[in-house]
User: Fold these one by one.
Assistant:
Number 1:
Amino acid sequence: MTVSVALRRCLLCLALALPSALVLAGDWHVALGMMDRGASQPGGLTAFNEDVAREICRRARVHCVTVNLPFGEILEGLAEGRYAMGFGNFLRTGEREKRIAFSVPLWHSSSRLIARADVQRRLSDATLDSLQRLRVTAVPGTQQHAYWQSVAASRDLVVVPAGSMGDIIGMLRRGQADVALVPVLSAYALLAGEATGEFAFVGPPAADRGLGGGVHVGLPKGNESLRKTVDKALVEMRADGTLHRIVRRHFNFSLD
């Protein structure tokens, strides 16, 4: 065998091995939904999502580079392939499936109404279906915001968009909105840092009308290798108790 033939064969072997090596060694850019509250403290939803993301990356043998973004920008970034994973309490909808892929479910979610305690007392018998003539808020791009928009005209509701999930408490406190509709986990995370009795839930949880269901990690569409890697990590994390331990590190309730 000549040197040139041997060299060509060696280069061919390296080329065949290179994609696998890049998958293992390359950085994964991960988008985390902005909360602006408790993001770096135990109990924060952003910190919880970051711990889940880093555990997935550890099992996939890749390095995570995280960035905090508003919900709508996460969806856009995933659709454009700029992020390997996106965490924003993503519910799987037909419209979103046209743009991004989804992991196996992390947990099942519902939505809750929250308000200042004085507003909650005034609306003590209210339900999601009975609210009328109020200023309501949610984060644009979410199912909760889409729901408000679908019923606003018939119920004389004024929809005031929140810049991020973390803006909602301030908006309620300042009277810029009367009630907010948020995913239940976000609701608990938002209220965790507030004085007892200052804010309260209004009415029961809602899981129909697109306001509940499986919560997934958002993924770029068309990357089956990535999806299978993330799914494998999540299934293993649930089976060996790691996911449960991460939940308990940040929340005093179960997500099961």
Number 2:
Amino acid sequence: MIGGDRARRPGPTVRTQVHEHLADGTDRRHEDRLATEEPLEIRLAWPGTPARRVWVTMRTPGHDFELAAGWLVHEGLTRPADVHAVAYCTDTDLTPEQEFNVVTVTLGAPPLTEPGHRHVGQSTGSSACGVCGKDSVAAALDVPTAAGRWAGPLPSTDVVRALPASLRASQTVFARTGGVHAAGLATADGRLLTIREDVGRHNAVDKVTGARVLAGHSPAEACLVVSGRAGFELVQKAVAAGIGALVAVGAPTSLSVRLADESGLALYGFTAPDRCVRYS
């Protein structure tokens, strides 16, 4: 759906020249790599309704279709089965910089809720923002689940403690830049099914769910492991995807523990080979 003469697709990293100052007083110039951060505009279309902007987020390019599909499921706007097609927008008025930064998701049925307020045409989010625009705590805690709850076994504490190291071993973009988060979907025995990285921790989770949706699989699984803290927005997405347990390297927050407890999500924080803390 994209012509051969269109702009070059941005990659997950970019080269830059740096001037490094060492403690012994010496300096050196060398090439370094940065994690790419660019905006992604998500547009939504369904039968009888032309594409309209519903969200703009800052992300690391790569797996953009997955990010868009996962975000829609996490927001409760669609069921996984209703994602009919995803494509880069080909409007003739797009600038070269926009050509691979605008994605249109076409649904096979109307959205479950009318995109509005948080999903209005001018909505914008940073790479750190997952729940902007909620009217109240009650609205934030009201998380729709379009994928169905996980009803299978959950990981043992031995598996939980090993998951962050398994995830870290597959963080290729982080190894090159030190500047991205990661999320991975795992079975109850600790086998990682899908791993995604992004400058935004919530984007990484969107990409994981989107990968499952676009592959025709349910996003509900035993465990989601994330490289950072267990902020509310990550718990919200895990609940929306039907995840059984969320394992985080860092700490949770009061609201994330509350949502996990009310939703039946097993929530772990401060996870390391010798320790993990269960909060719900």
Number 3:
Amino acid sequence: MQKLFAVAAAVALAGSLACGKSASEKQAEQAAAEMQKAAEAATKASETAGQDVAKGMQDFAKAMSGMAGALGAVDGKTVEPVSFQALQTTLPEVSGWEMDKPRGERMTAPVPFAQTEAQYTKGGSRIEVKVVDSGSAPLLIAPWSMMLAAGFSRETSEGYEKAITVNGQPAFEKWNSDSKNGELNILVDKRFLVSIEGDDLADTKVLHEVAGKMDFGKFASLK
């Protein structure tokens, strides 16, 4: 599975580069090279079952870290995640939407992280807000790295994906016009992963309204 994920991500990244060059081409090319390393490391890890799996996965994690670093998503310093109870204080109150009881968890190994999430409903529409403290671990941030890269965009007959900024933080927005589903994903302080997903929406405007209710400056005080 890890092999397939890494190879697919490498292909997707290569495809985005083929769409045209930009001012960030050098950065993207370096990220593509790092992703290729990750794919090779994942392949090696899958082939060493019963031999040196730990070493193979360490190489994979290192390569993913290099890719995330190439795109500026991480600075190489990891920290201990805060409690999920602390993260729950960042969940917003949204006028007109009913918020259910927040859920949360914290894990210490193999990759430490903490997360909280809550659902909001209004009629037939639903929004889910999730906040993850990655501790700046590249393995958690890397899957977002390509789409957070400045200039990234992808459009299909069903919708689009594009890199944007939200309150000064790197983010990417996704919209499916057929299913009326949208996502707004924000990386706060190169550490906190904020995902706002909605179903049965008219557009992504409400997702931005929810993000606007969140105090990103408060995240720094949780560290």
Number 4:
Amino acid sequence: MYKFLLAFFLMTITTEVHSNTTSINAHEFQFKSIDGEELKLSKYTNKVLLVVNTASRCGFTPQYTALQNLWDQYKNKGLVVIGVPSGDFGNQELGSDKKIKNFCEVNFNINFPMTTRSHVKGPKAHPFYKWANKQVGFTGTPRWNFHKFLIGPKGQIIDWFASTTKPGSLKIKSKIEKQLSLIKQK
């Protein structure tokens, strides 16, 4: 019982990341967009990123609504929400990028940037996730769909949020607003 409680606790806590262990930052990575185009994170320098591994058939899939709301609320202030579809957890993502895009548009009116279906854990993980997972350590790595990484304007990981943390929560919004205020100070 204690092992279960400890595992659950580790899955639901967040730990603020105070420093990077390398000079590499998120802006050095790129994805392929869900439309097949290059999606360089360097184009988001001086923006705040919320990178979320998503899945279409998950109990957390309704978080798409809150992610879209965050995007709508803060995109003109410098926030970029990026959805990274993945089937790594329970194979709960649709099989093709076309089906994923259609599902997101039809069911949630998603218009924030989405990538192609990607791995977020293990040896086949996308390079961004290999880097991010190394930065946050074992407790901060994705354990399920809708894990969130908050990236600051200079490309550093600011924090991570477990799947159970809702995108519209005060915890996430206050961290986003703090990072957006740093953009305004420049």
